[in-house]
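Protein modeling request. Please complete all fields; requests missing the sequence field cannot be processed.
Requester role: graduate student
Desired output: 3D structure, C-alpha cell encoding
Chains: 1
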Amino acid sequence: MTAEPRARRRRGAEESLLSIVLVLEAVLVFFIVLVAFGLRVLSPGVAFGGGAALVVLLVLDSRLLRFPAGVWFGWVLQVALVALGILLPLMYFIGAVFLGIWIYCFITGRRLDRRNAGLLSQQTKENS
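Delivered output (128 residues):
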C-alpha cells in the first residue's frame, strides 16, 4: 500500500515574478538596516527589530501570493518600502525603483497567465 506522490501545485507567472521581487526586497531591507544602524538613524534595537520584522513580512508574503489578499498585502509592503525614505531619503528613490519593478512584474505576470490559460484552453479543445 504505497501512497502516490502528491502533484506539485502549478504556480502562475504573476505569483512567481512577484515572489522574486519580494525576496529581493527582503535582501534589500537587510542592507537598509545595516545602513540605518551605521548612520545611527535609529537605535540598534529598533533598527534590527523593525528590519527583521519587515524581512519576515516580505518573505511570508512571497509565500502568500497565491491568494488575492497576499497580492494586496504586497502592495502595502511596497508603500512601506517607499515610506522608509522618511528615515533614509535615498529610500524614496530605491523604493520607487522597486515599486516600478513590482508594477512591471504584476502587469507582465497577469498578461502571461492570461496567455497561458488561453493556450491551455486551446490545446484542450484540440485534444478533445
